[in-house]
Amino acid sequence: MGRLLITFLLSVIGLMSGLTFLWKVPLIEKNRPSFKRRLKVSVIIPARNEEQSLPQLLSSLKDQNFPIEEIIVVDDDSTDRTLEVAEEFGIQVISEFEHTGKSAACWAGAKQAKGDYLVFLDADTFFVGSDALEKALSTYRQEMKTGLLSIQPYHVIKQFYETLAIVPNIVVMAGLNRFSLFQNLPKRGAFGPFILVNKEEYESVGGHGAILDSHMDDIELAKLYKTHHLPVEVFGGQESIHFRMFPEGVKQLLNGITKSLIHGSKGTHAVTLIAIGLWLLSTILPIVLFVLASIQEAILFIFLSIIMYGVGCLHFRWLMNKVGRFPWQTALVPFFYVLSFLVIYAWALIQVYILKKVSWRGRVHKV
């Protein structure tokens, strides 16, 4: 009976812990006043082998009601039709620059940009609504006026295998300590898919030129801004910007998650890590409790295990709605997605600490 009680209590504690790390995800507000004067904004898109994703992003940029000064696609030595796709949209393309990688591509685009404000966008993102960019700019101008504004896009999927990104998305968002119930935790990082900065300020701190060797430009750029005592704010993109992260298959999903999890988890606060760990455990414990209670014919604990499983499914649904739009049925089997996450994370550890390399977009990065 003692084991059953301990298992039940751990399950409860785990669910309660799961309420803390994504307590509130602020969104860019829907109704923002128009600007009294035009702002010069340059959009910079680092792209490597993004021929599938780029058209949707460029189309959404063309649909924005805010006049964009220029859109620059920085082709990072693509081997597909990325360059041709950008040119078909009449977009300025930079294809020759020093170094390689996302940070170098962002820096190359920033150096040629004419705008007073720079927006760095991943190629797999796209705006939702014609006023999304204007809302982000208004938020920056009215609430921050300085520093770095970042938005984590809302994840949308088309294929079943993409649901494997549910738990990694939750963990990555939680890892920044920015949406936690515990507001006194040290905040860290930003979200790389959307970053908005003032160009003059960006250049004064060194911008991406100061972090050329980094594989996680978002975390390092945010750290750079903090070093110069400049604010970093992050928002959720549910009503403004979405992305489909892994349209090319399971291999792309595994490589992308590996890169994000390993580099992103290094600076996560211990309190957040413990809360995440307890929550992951709580998705499996009701099943363990049900099996143990069935063996011992403990009717009360069988009943409690069923209740805890149901509550866990609702909680899983609550969390996954914060990070993306996934089929509701996925909430019925949270243990499956947690176990899948643990397998992916184990593979990530093997790549980083044993093989000491991570593959992404046809490149092998040594770590």
UniProtKB/TrEMBL annotation:
The chain crosses the membrane at residues 270-292, 299-320, 332-355. Its main location: membrane. Pfam families: Glycos_transf_2. Keywords: Carotenoid biosynthesis, Cell membrane, Glycosyltransferase, Membrane, Transferase, Transmembrane, Transmembrane helix. Pathway: Carotenoid biosynthesis; staphyloxanthin biosynthesis; staphyloxanthin from farnesyl diphosphate: step 4/5. Residues 42-161 form the Glycosyltransferase 2-like domain. It is found in: Cell membrane. Catalyzes the glycosylation of 4,4'-diaponeurosporenoate, i.e. the esterification of glucose at the C1'' position with the carboxyl group of 4,4'-diaponeurosporenic acid, to form glycosyl-4,4'-diaponeurosporenoate. This is a step in the biosynthesis of staphyloxanthin, an orange pigment present in most staphylococci strains. Belongs to the glycosyltransferase 2 family. CrtQ subfamily. This is 4,4'-diaponeurosporenoate glycosyltransferase. It comes from Alkalibacterium iburiense. The lineage of its organism: Bacteria, Bacillati, Bacillota, Bacilli, Lactobacillales.
